[in-house]
Write a structure and sequence with these properties.
It is built from 24 helices and 22 strands. Helix content is 41%, strand content 17%. The structure holds adenosine-5'-diphosphate (ADP) and magnesium ion. Adenosine-5'-diphosphate binds next to helix 12.
Length: 699
């Protein structure tokens, strides 16, 4: 179908120069190709006619109704002017509302005539109303339509008379054109046969004009496969290959630091998963190629000790290591945990952050250059050009989603031979997604928590339950436990949020006069923040009232309660991170999500996911279903090559796996894509690049 890009859309029957211009401007549809691949984003079953009396609830889907207009009235002035048609089907009435093209609609539709109308009823002023319905004269002997596609349209397109129906008609014209009928299938024939895929023409036909639900499903499958095949082909050929080719330092032995610590100083046996990922990492660092590995592990799964062992291997092989964290608090905590361990085996560690004093900083720089400093822990400060090593062999980055590819690359450049890179993240993403999004990273997963961890019991409570929640906190405090109470704070709402936090702090102090309450928020001076945090960590204080500054970092195993105020304002992964602050000790822990009563369906779902699972992978998957992977921090820079139109990286895992396997097999026998078929595949990838908005981000 490649050659279709050469046909200007204005030559399509029914388009012409005027419509072509607006299609180009609004939807980037400029050629036959663009139009053909502009698929409906959903489908509606139009084989049934509903009754107004049966329409209930807040989220009614689009429906088809049969009846008559009783009256037409205009209301409002100027921009707010609208036309209202009262529509009755004998079981009830609702309002049809038009904001544009009022005059032409008044001239077209009549009262008393029977129509089929179609649209989404929404409750408004105690009646239902449908904005801009599709209206057709009712024809008694006409077969009701089956599945009908709904196309993406902009306000401007609607104002120019575009509707889903018009788009469908244009697609029909397009499908009947010789250019499309004679187009060749972009997928290799052998793959179509092997996977039993629907041929391309039949597939695009069914996507625009489904002949049945089953045919539509096969068509969708085929197009998803096609997109993912080319995406994987591109990633495997260009991105994955690139990093695989970089030479890396060879760390030939595990060394005595590792063995000494493992045999004499380890406080707990490693979990099977920890042992496995350490082996995977060790194999990478011995291979002679540069390691680029993503280490995924849920909050509390024990990534720090894995990082430490990894660093010990590098250090024993005459190299230095660094660990970079996204915040000062987290870097400091890593430093405290790791320097205590490093001391036992005589490894020199230092902490470098934005607030490190000049004198100390100079000492660190010098010790890095002469090699006496073996392990450096810190924040973004590690990336500065003045930070130079004698031989940096390993860079560990904690919390991947705050570091883009560009920052990773800056670390590579710190050394003549690029250091091995281990990226650690507690925001797990499904494996198929990470393979595709982080095409250049190998993935290791810690899928097991240390033994004895009890899942955190999570409850959803409402504003008027506050008294009971305070009573519950009191019970836990009397057992000697500690509690967190977290408030949201976002920049746009900073003043109000801070006030809510401070009010909360006062109320909590009043409720618990015999206990000490600390408060931390991001607007405090670092020293004050650290002091308050330290009070809580050392059990001087019993309750910590805080904003999300505690999201990463703090490790207080004695804390058993996490109350999250206005939980409806947090995203799923953030809630999960916060919850991860409790459940670190041996006691049963609790997370209480406080929310207002009236919630949207989506928000309620989000909170309910939290109460039903402790599994970070499930949470992450739900999160992406709700938000879409495009919203995930980090995916923007991570190298998704082109926009996917039908495939979904989150929900189409099984298809991704097939496409990836097939792309791998294909590259096996044609690695450069220079067979005659391979050249066509390469041309198709280039075409996809031209048709993407974000292609510049890949570089
Ligand atoms: P995260 O993966 O969230 O960074 P940490 O590395 O901070 O997790 O580990 C959380 C806690 O679990 C720490 O107190 C750590 O000492 C402890 N821990 C790690 N591994 C084990 C293990 N195998 N057995 C018992 N406790 C462990
Ligand atoms: Mg951690």
């Amino acid at each position: 179908m490649n050659n279709l890009t050469r046909y200007d859309i204005k030559y399509l029957t029914g388009v012409g120069p005027k419509r072509a211009e607006i299609l180009g401007k609004e939807l980037d549809i400029r050629s036959f190709y663009d139009m053909l691949y502009n698929f409906p984003f959903r489908y509606i079953d139009r084989s049934t006619i509903h009754r107004i009396a049966d329409l209930r609830g807040h989220d009614i889907p689009s429906v088809q109704l049969r009846g008559r207009f009783v009256t037409f009235n205009t209301q409002g002035e100027g921009a707010r002017r609208r036309l209202i048609g009262l529509f009755s089907d004998g079981t009830g009435t609702l309002e049809c509302v038009w904001f544009n093209r009022i005059k032409s609609i008044q001239q077209t539709y009549r009262t008393g005539v029977e129509y089929i109308i179609f649209g989404k009823p929404t409750p408004f002023n105690r009646t239902l109303s449908i904005a801009h319905p599709e209206v057709d004269a009712y024809q008694p002997n006409q077969q009701p339509a089956g599945m009908v596609g709904v196309y993406n349209l902009t306000e401007k397109l609607r104002n120019h008379g575009f509707s889903s129906r018009l788009m469908q008609k244009l697609a029909k014209n397009l499908l009947e054109s010789d250019a499309v009928k004679q187009g060749h299938d972009p997928l290799p024939e052998a793959i179509i046969r092997h996977r039993g895929l629907m041929p391309v023409y039949e597939a695009v036909h069914n996507l625009h004009l489904p002949s049945s639900i089953a045919a539509l499903q096969r068509a969708q499958y085929r197009m998803k496969y096609e997109e993912l095949f080319f995406l994987e082909l591109h990633i495997l050929k260009n991105i994955k290959g690139l990093t695989k080719k970089l030479a890396g330092q060879v760390f030939s032995h595990v060394g005595s630091y590792f063995n000494d610590f493992y045999n004499h100083h380890l406080q707990f046996p490693l979990t099977g998963a920890q042992k496995r990922v350490i082996k995977e990492i060790r194999a990478d660092m011995m291979s002679g190629r540069q390691m680029n590995r993503l280490l995924q592990g849920d909050v509390g799964s024990g990534k720090t000790i894995v990082a430490f062992f990894t660093a010990l291997i590098a250090i024993a092989n005459d190299a230095q290591a660094c660990i970079m964290a996204p915040t000062e608090i987290l870097a400091t905590q890593h430093f405290e945990a790791i320097s205590a361990m490093a001391e036992k085996v005589g490894v020199k560690v230092a902490l470098l952050t934005g607030s490190t004093r000049k004198k100390q900083r100079d000492e660190i720089h010098a010790a890095l250059l002469d090699g006496s400093l073996q392990l450096l822990i810190g924040t973004h400060a590690l990336l500065e050009d003045v930070v130079q090593y004698r031989n940096l062999g390993l860079a560990i980055i904690d919390e991947q989603h705050r570091f883009g590819v560009a920052q990773r690359a800056r670390l590579w450049k710190k050394n003549a031979t690029p250091p091995h890179v281990l990226v650690m993240t507690a925001t797990p993403i499904p494996r198929t997604l990470s393979m595709t999004v982080y095409g250049d990273l190998d993935v290791s997963i810690i899928d097991e928590l240390p033994p004895g961890r009890k899942p955190v019991s999570t409850y959803l409570r409402y504003e008027n339950d506050h008294e009971k929640v305070y009573q519950f906190i009191g019970q836990e405090l009397r057992k000697g436990r500690q509690a967190y109470i977290v408030y949201p704070l976002i920049e746009e709402n900073e003043k109000l949020d801070l006030r809510a936090l401070e009010e909360g702090f006062e109320i909590v102090q009043e409720k618990f006069p015999h206990y000490k309450v600390s408060m931390v928020h991001g607007k405090m001076k670092p020293a004050e923040k650290d002091y308050q945090m330290q009070q809580f960590a050392s059990h001087e204080s019993h309750i910590l009232v805080a904003t999300t500054v505690i999201e990463v970092g703090v490790n207080v195993p004695n804390a058993s309660v996490m109350v999250i105020e206005n939980a409806e304002r947090f995203g799923l992964s953030q809630l999960h991170q916060l919850r991860g602050r409790v459940g670190r000790g041996a006691d049963q822990s609790y997370c209480i999500l406080m929310s207002k009563h009236s919630l949207t369906k989506e928000t309620r779902h989000r909170l309910e996911v939290m109460t039903t699972t402790n599994d970070g992978f499930v949470v992450a998957e739900e999160d992406m279903k709700l938000r879409g992977p495009g919203d995930m921090e980090g995916t923007q820079q991570s190298g998704i090559a082109f926009n996917l139109k039908v495939a979904n990286l989150v929900t189409d895992g099984p298809i991704i796996e097939q496409a990836r396997a097939d792309a791998e097999a294909y590259l096996e026998h044609d690695p450069q894509l220079d067979s005659s078929e391979g050249r066509q595949l390469a041309a198709h990838i280039r075409l996809l690049f031209q048709h993407t908005v974000n292609w510049g981000l890949i570089s």
